[in-house]
Design a protein that fits this description.
This protein has 288 residues and is mostly helical. It has two domains: 197 residues, no CATH class; 57 residues, no CATH class. The protein contains nine helices and two strands; from the N terminus they run ββααααααααα.
Length: 288
């Protein structure tokens, strides 16, 4: 395949539509002890809250009853007031409102070149991690050194920046400004095209992972044939009349296994070369 041929325009649809995804935002910090107690309190019914509050306050201030009833009453009010303060302090930071449509979804809906590039990168990596070869020991070192999900996130982030600049341009104005507008649109299209080269690298990586999955299946089948060939050759010798030469099945299958392993080694080397542009010179992909 010619590496200079753009792949992303024909490999950007997932189930017939553009899908752009990034990693979900990391979860917030673990709740404190006081926040966990506040959660438990808020799960109680209102009458249960009053009952627990009054019993707790009465028990806590019972020693004051030896002084006077008024002292205990003041103590109960003090405990209840302290409880209100603690409840207020147990509040957790408000969660952001759920957006009807994320920035990635709006980008995908635009159908612009940068949207297709981001969708192609999303699809390529999703298909890569579903390949059998990606989970195999053969790519154990690659899994530890290559964060494809982060690469997709970077492609999507740059595509969002290109798209934001495109939206800022607005409609084409009339007069001399129209030509300037056209030049800026063309510049953004070129930026999206350069970003497409990065998506293409992820697509080629996915294709190589798929080819490696095929070779792994061939290797598994050939190794099974190698084991059965030993049994078949043994039976051939035992059932032959006189001393005969064994069928060369074992030798043939062993040679084919070596050929498959050699092809697998070449594929793994190709995958390493394919991801090299993604690991170096990140400024090359920076959008204007």
């Amino acid at each position: 395949m010619d590496v200079d041929t753009a792949l992303w325009p024909d490999r950007c649809l997932t189930d017939g539509r553009l899908v752009v995804l990034r990693q979900p935002e990391p979860a917030g910090p673990e709740p404190t002890w006081l926040q966990r107690r506040g959660r438990t309190w808020r799960r109680l019914q209102r009458n249960e809250q009053w009952a627990v509050a009054m019993v707790s306050a009465t028990v806590a201030t019972s020693p004051l009853s030896t002084v006077s009833d008024d002292a205990q009453a003041l103590g109960v009010l003090g405990v209840l007031a302290a409880g209100v303060v603690l409840l207020w302090r147990s509040r957790e930071p408000g969660r952001p409102a759920v957006r009807a449509q994320s920035a990635e979804a709006r980008l995908a809906a635009s159908g612009t070149p940068e949207a297709r590039v981001a969708a192609a990168a999303t699809r390529a990596w999703g298909e890569t991690i579903r390949e059998h070869s990606w989970r195999s020991p053969v790519l154990a070192a690659t899994r530890g050194s290559f964060d494809g999900r982060a690469e997709v996130d970077q492609v999507v982030e740059l595509a969002l920046r290109v798209h934001a600049a495109r939206l800022a341009l607005g409609r084409r104005p009339t007069g001399p400004a129209g030509q300037v507008h056209d030049e800026q649109v063309a510049a953004l299209d070129r930026a999206a095209g350069r970003l497409g080269a990065r998506a293409d690298a992820l697509i080629r990586y996915r294709d190589q992972a798929a080819a490696l999955s095929v070779e792994l299946r061939h290797l598994r089948d050939l190794e099974r044939m190698e084991r059965t060939a030993l049994v078949v050759d043994g039976l051939t010798i035992e059932t032959a009349s006189g001393a005969g030469r064994p069928d060369p099945g074992v030798v043939r299958v062993t040679a084919e296994i070596e050929g498959v392993r050699s092809a697998m080694a070449e594929l793994v080397a190709d995958m390493s070369r394919t991801r090299e542009p993604l690991l170096h010179d990140p400024t090359r992909w920076t959008a204007p």
